[in-house]
Amino acid sequence: MDTDHSTGGSSASEEGAQLQKMWVTFRKKASLPHDCPPEAATLETGAREYLHSFLQCSVLFFQSLTGIHFTPPSDDGQVFSDMCMFLNIPHSLHTLLDKPDSSSSPGYSLRRLAGSWSSHSRLRELGAGAVASLPPILRQPRQLISLPRSYSDLVNKASKFKCANHVVDGDDGQAAMLCLLCGQMLCTNSYCCMTDVEDEEEEEDNQPGHKRLRIGGLTRHAQTCGDGVGMALWILEVYVVLLDATNIRHVKGCTLTPPYLDQYGESDPGLRRGSPLLLSEESVQQLDTVWFQHQVPERITQEMEQNRNLMGIVWSQM
User: Percent of the chain having pLDDT more than 70?
Assistant: First the structure.
């Protein structure tokens, strides 16, 4: 069934006026102050901004589902309308809210659904404090940190690194890793930063005697920084370490060539040759792809299949 994408001759000011009426109606039903509605233009602009982020996600989903590619227009002002057309929904906001829901009873629209939410008894009990500000507009996906052009800058940073848990003066730089997700310097693969954690799965099994698992600095950091996924640069060893610690019982990992190459396009593991290493944009893009497409666990599995020696490493103590 074709959807009418026209605004019915209504101007932008009429669109904002309709949203103002809806704002007053919903606030009344929620027993909240409704005497001073925002400006019509402010409501319309804000609604479109928040809808824009949701429509972007919807377009990507249906593009993957149907295989039909969405081509963004050259004019940024037409992106919202074109996304609505791609999704076969009206781009007029009040028309969209009045559009009947085919999965519900006849005449049941999004406007009525929002009205029922506004008049819910639980919202009345909580009062005005329950109405918080709008959540932030969808932000850009989390990116890997920016790296210096010369690898010598990272080597200098590692040489100055001092572990807070290392009570004896020594060469802490040998164990220094740089988290590529947040930029924090970590002391890993070292006893000074080993910690014991409870085996939660064993507790759930009600087995006698709680077993404690020993984990290293990178594994512990990955739990809070990457939700169990870690990506760090082992500076003096010249490796990128991928870690999958989503299951603390079975932590897996692998090493990759870092995005720093010499003039011949080769890396220098352990800095044995001492060749100057410079940042390779192509290698950085490859790491970005692994991170953005959630390929860390998959890449670890592939590397383990090709190199069985990786299975003998206790990655949880990394």
Answer: 77
